[in-house]
Amino acid sequence: MSNLLGLEVKKIVETTPEEVERVKEWINTEEYKEKNFARQALVINPVHACQPLGAQLAAHGFEGTLPFVHGSQGCASYYRSTLNRHFREPAPAVSDSMTEDGAVFGGQNNLHEGLENANAIYKPKMIAVFTSCMPEVIGDDLTAFIKNAKQKSCVPKDMPVPFANTPSFNGTHIHGYDSMLVSILQTLTEGKQIEGRCTGKLNLIPGCDFNTGDYREYKRILKEFGIPYTMLADISDTFDSPCDGSYHIYAGGTKLEDAADSINGKATIAIGPYATPKTFGWVKDNYSGKHVSMPMPMGIAKTDDFIMKVAELFGKEVPASLKNERGRAVDAVTDSHQYMHGKKFAVYGDPDYLMGYVSFLLEMGARPHHILCSRGSKKVEKELQALLDGSMYGQGCKIYMNKDLWHLRSLLMTDPVDAVIGDSHGKFATRDAKIPLFRFGFPVFDRVNKHRYPLIGYQGVVNMVTEICNKFIDIKDETCEDRDFELMR
Amino acid sequence: MSDKIRKIEGITKESTQAMIDEALSVYPEKARKKRAPHLAPNDAASGCASVKSNKKTVPGVMSARGCAYAGAKGVVWGPIRDMVHVSHGPVGCGWYSWGTRRNMMTGITGVNNFAMQFTSDFQEKDIVYGGDKKLKTLLEEAKELFPLAKGISVLSECPVGLIGDDINSVAKASAKDLDIPIIPCNCEGFRGVSQSLGHHISNDTIRDYIIGTREFAEPESPYDIALIGEYNIGGDAWSTKPLLEECGLNVKSVWTGDGELEKIAATHKVKLNVIHCYRSMNYMCKVMEEKFGIPWIELNFFGPTKIRQSLRALAELFDDNIKEKVEAVIAKYDPIMQAVIEEYKPRLDGKKVMLLVGGLRPRHTIGAYEDLGMDCVGSGYEFAHTDDYDRTAPEMPDATVVYDDPSEYEFEKFADALKPDLVGSGIKEKYVFQKMGIPFRQMHSWDYSGPYHGYKGFEVFARDVDMAINSPTWNLVKAPY
Predict the structure, then answer these.
(1) Res B1: pLDDT
(2) Which stretches of A124-227 are assigned E, i.e. beta strand?
(3) What values do phi and psi take at A371, rounded to 5?
(4) What would the mean pLDDT of A399-414 be, rounded to a whole number?
């Protein structure tokens, strides 16, 4: 077979430099932007990944837990390598390597063989199963498959094997996180609710957060309060484990017994209403104690809300140490506000992060000029608009729902800003626009240790302000005329 | 090919087999039986594969393998710089493989190179109603927004094949309407057992849709060659192509690193195909040999010893003009390479390396390590076939362990036993070994460095290997208290 398109055989024609130059200019124009925004089907440089990635993140947050991809093995390799690159840490997960025959006969045999092998080789305490496209398209029945697996003793009958349907053609990584997490909690807490028992603990659900520093920061804040807690799910040691000459496949995670007992908690806070709606809904209906869903505590105001809520739920005063910490963070922002005031930003990312970025920028007197979400909703848009409406610095700022980074490029070229907040994938657009990119989102593939620096809490404010302001000062130092180059800034 | 059978002190067939048996002892019986034929001591004298390969991965063991889509998009198609490559299906596959292979490209992104992520971002409704209509619209949009694209590839992800979409018909109709080659590639991830089938499918697609549809504008010359299976990882092609040109050859096209669609389409006009990555592109070399009578030769551009052998083998296929130029090139670079070896070898002599890479480097890089005085004490592939293992046997020291599609557990156990000074493998393995305090280099992506091919590449390779093994940071791993 050859030339199946029936192409006419022609001599090679090189594109002329003039033509390249013309198109290079053209893609920066308003006319191009209009064509670009008229796209209906083609998605270019999307900001979101697929559900199973988030599911794997949630699974890694529990002690001794092996993430298990029911589907093609390539999927597992993709999720793992993404987490490896972002955290620069191992991300052990198995798959049951479904192939063509799975499409015909279903994936039960693969699942059973996979569970038996994974259990024997990697000796997990829990196996968290989630799906990629193939079993979702052919309609595998995980409930039955896993029940049968236990009957056949592929895994011990008492081993928790939570599972989540996480089709990649629906939602994004944050939805997969939510589905996996609620399934894990449902499985672990089954039959564990004890009438009259209260652990006295706060259950903190941090949401689909890829910054291990954030997890450590939550824990530190709760320690300052003296409030006992259970974090659901805690990836901080999993993805920030010591290099000491030994490899531990399960390096961290919430203890399974603590997670089981979390149903008897004194209170539960779910961070990130967009990343944890299912989990929070189920917790609200089933967990003892009080339940609150809150935005990520990014920026002073949202951190204040978090601190006050924790204090209220536990009837405690805000400790002096945290009051001082707040004061120091405010000191940092007032000292440096002049470097951010009035600066225009474009921001993109998952909805919960966006709320945080926008709130933080507005309280610095900066303008979140373009706000872009590659999988948003009316609800997200409305909440963002309310934030903008609440500040004079939000006036004239625009929200773009369900747009991608090729749209963002058009925005940066036709309506320029001073900087962008996003993830590593924004580096192409910001290079073209000759502006800095602040990598606060996920993934960060091209800078080191970013995930170790919290963005939440008062410390997060200090970190963000320091990075942003110093970068603007660097740019001034690197680009100013000699006569404007001076010691002090 | 190596001159004599090498041995490593302390490694015998028995010791290697005992290590394998020990690693497999935790496996359930069925899995152990399936895995055992894929692990064996090397039989250097036989020159034949000692392991089974290209079989289904055993479920649940933690394989490093990817899928057919990864082999098609990531390896073969992705590096062609002047095409729009559409990951057709849900958003994830394209997103994970976006910019993560390090196949470098010249040109201006979005203008005349398209190192971006194009996807149809399938939603539930596309699964239910099919995605063909969406594909048609998407192709029109791509053509309008990227007028300098020389073609579009449509790379199917799993659901496309499962729901019975007909991308081939859409591509054919749209190619006509839009007057641009649109190449459908049915490389769904569930096909086959690894990336390897994706390479094969992509080769077949090049055969069916591309080859023979263009001709070079310049007159033919007896020195016209194509460089096949060179993906320009970390700029490799920018080292090898000039090297071949320095030898007097005209490199008319590169498959597919920094590649150009039309030059690939005209490759049936060259006089010789020079192949580097045999695993991923031998198919098209064989097609061009059968159909167009173009001979092909396998070369190795890792390390001065192999480069020298390769260039001389290449020169044998040409006249004295080329033979003289090749000798001049070797004479020019040998002292430079000797200086590199003299700088690094004293610090690397006798060090042991273990490899696990894709389908070529587990054998092709061994010579480069040996140039630096190092020994390969274990090697294996994610997705090689028997012919790759045949080629591996003479490269490895006798009785060292050969592993095909090893699980992470097996790899870790072998490293525990062999105590290598360096492991060369992928990102999924990197941090496992670094936690163990074992120096590591990513050998798929050159660990954000490169090039590693050619004379220019060896200098970088030697520096990186030295940096990895002799970094003082490894001395900090154990606390003094």
Answers:
(1) 44
(2) 126-131, 163-164, 202-205
(3) -120, 120
(4) 98
> In terms of C-beta density within 10 A (0-12 exposed, 13-18 middle, 19 or more buried), how is residue A139 classed?
exposed
Is the CB of residue B78 less than 8 Å from the CB of residue B202? Answer: no
Domain ranges of chain A: 51-189, 202-240+251-323, 326-482
Determine the Cα angle at A196 with ends A190 and A202, to 5°.
70
- CATH for B68-192, among 3.40.50.1980, 3.40.50.2000, 3.40.50.1580, 3.30.2420.10? 3.40.50.1980
| Residue B200 identity (one-letter amino acid) | H
Give residue A102's pLDDT band: very low, low, confident or very high (50, 70, 90): confident
Tell if the CB–CB gap between A68 and B60 is shorter than 8 Å: yes
Contacts of B97 in chain A (CB under 8 A): 78
pLDDT at B69: 98
The secondary element (H helix, E strand) that includes residue A463 is helix A457-479
User: 253-282 in B: which are within 8 Å (CB) of A?
Assistant: 262-263, 265-266
Contact A272, A296 (CB under 8 A): yes
Report the alpha-carbon distance of residue A373 to residue A347 in Å, rounded.
9
What distance in Å separates residue A219's CA from the closest CA in chain B?
25
The two tokens of residue B400 are: 């060292």
Tell me which chain B residue has its CA closest to the CA of residue A51. B92
Q: Please state which of the ranges A57-61, B1-5, B381-385 shows the lowest mean pLDDT.
A: B1-5
The answer to whether the B13-62+349-448 and B224-331 domains have the same CATH topology is yes
pLDDT greater than 80 at residue B27: yes
Name chain B contacts of A409, Cβ cutoff 8 Å. Answer: 110
Class of domain A51-189: alpha beta
Percent of chain A at pLDDT exceeding 90: 98
Q: Which of B70, B187, B226, B285 is catalytic?
A: B70
pLDDT (0 to 100) of residue B64: 97
Whether residue A204 is predicted with pLDDT greater than 90 in this model: the reply is yes
E strand intervals along A427-474: 437-439
Size of interface A-B (CB pairs under 8 A): 308
A95 to B63: CB separation less than 8 angstroms, yes or no: yes
Check residue B3 and give its pLDDT.
59
- The answer to whether residue B268 scores a pLDDT higher than 60 is yes
Fold of B13-62+349-448: Rossmann fold (3.40.50)
Q: Which positions in chain A touch B141 (Cβ < 8 Å)?
A: 39-42
pLDDT > 90: what percent of chain B?
99
Which of the residues B35, B81, B85, B101 is marked catalytic?
B101
3-class SS at A83?
A: helix
| pTM of structure | 0.98
Provide the shortest C-alpha distance from residue A310 to chain B (in Å): 37
For the A202-240+251-323 domain, the top CATH level (class) is alpha beta
Distance of CA B474 to the CA centre of its chain: 29
CB contact under 8 Å between A244 and B479, yes or no, is: yes
Pairing of strands B39-41, B401-404: antiparallel
CA-CA distance, B115 to A171, in Å (whole number)?
25
Q: Do A89 and A240 touch, CB atoms closer than 8 A?
A: yes
Verify whether the Cβ–Cβ distance B91 to A50 is below 8 Å.
yes
The domain locations on chain B are 13-62+349-448, 68-192, 224-331
CA distance B246 to chain A (A): 24
Under CATH, to which class is A326-482 assigned? Answer: alpha beta
| Per-residue confidence (pLDDT) for residue B328, from 0 to 100 | 98
Between residues A471 and B5, the one the model is more confident about: A471
CATH number listed for the domain at residues B224-331: 3.40.50.1980
Confidence check: pLDDT of A1 > 80 = no
B142-164 pLDDT, tens digit per residue, is: 999 999 999 999 999 999 999 99
> Which two three-digit tokens encode residue A10?
């022609």
**Longest Cα–Cα distance in chain B:** 73
